[in-house]
Amino acid sequence: MRLVGKVGVIGAVAAATMLAAGCGGSSDNKASSTTTTAAATSTTAAAATTAASKGRECTAEDISVDGGFGTAPTIKLPADCDPPKELITKDLVVGSGPEAKAGDKLSTNYTLITWSNQKKLDSSFDRGKPLPLTLGAGQVIKGWDQGLVGIQEGSRRLLIIPPALGYGDHPPSGMKPGETLVFVTDAVKVGN
C-alpha cells in the first residue's frame, strides 16, 4: 500500500436505493406501517451507535508500542476508548538530527495498523526499504504531511490519523471507509 495523498478518478458512484411501499394497492395502514418500521430502524441504529461508544477518546498514552528505533514495532490499541477525532502525534524516541519542515526530503520506515480491526496493513520494515518523500508536497496523506513536521532524524513518532486526514470514505483496497490509521514512523534521514 502506498501512502498516496491524491486519488485519480473515482470509478464508482454510490446509488440511492428506494423502497416501494408495497404491491397490489395502497392503504393508510401499509404506509403507516412502513413509516413506523423505518423510524424504529433509525432509532435502533442510533442506539447501537451510542452503545458502541466507550465514553472517551483515546490518547497517545493509551497506545502501547514495543520496539526501538530501527526495529519493526509491535502496536497494541486499547479496547476501552474511542479513536481520536483529531491528529495525535507523540515522539516515542527523540533523535538528535535535523528537524523536518515542509519542503524537506524525508526518508521513513513505518508500520501501519487500522483502528477497526487492529491488524497490520503495511510496513516498510517488512520490505527492508524506507519510504522517500518530500514533506508537505502532497505525496502522502495529509496526516503524514502535518504529523511529521518537526520530527528529528533518528526519532520514532506515533501518529494517530483520523479519517479526514487519511483516506476518508475512499480508502485503498483492504481498508474500510472512515478508518482511523495508527502509524509508528522512524525518521531515517531528514534533508538531502
Automatic annotation (TrEMBL):
Keyword Transcription listed: no
Enzyme class: isomerase
EC number of this enzyme: 5.2.1.8
Annotated signal peptide: 1-20
Matches recorded under Pfam families: FKBP_C
Chain intervals for the UniProt region annotation (Disordered): 24-43
Xref: InterPro entries: PPIase_dom_sf, PPIase_FKBP_dom
Biased composition (Low complexity): 31-43
Family (UniProt): Belongs to the FKBP-type PPIase family.
Gene3D superfamilies recorded: 3.10.50.40
Protein name, as recorded: Peptidyl-prolyl cis-trans isomerase
Domain PPIase FKBP-type: 103-191
Keywords annotated in UniProt: Isomerase, Rotamase, Signal
Glycoprotein listed as a keyword: no
Catalyzed reaction equations: [protein]-peptidylproline (omega=180) = [protein]-peptidylproline (omega=0)
UniProt cross-references to SUPFAM superfamilies, sorted A to Z: FKBP-like (SSF54534)
MF GO annotations: isomerase activity
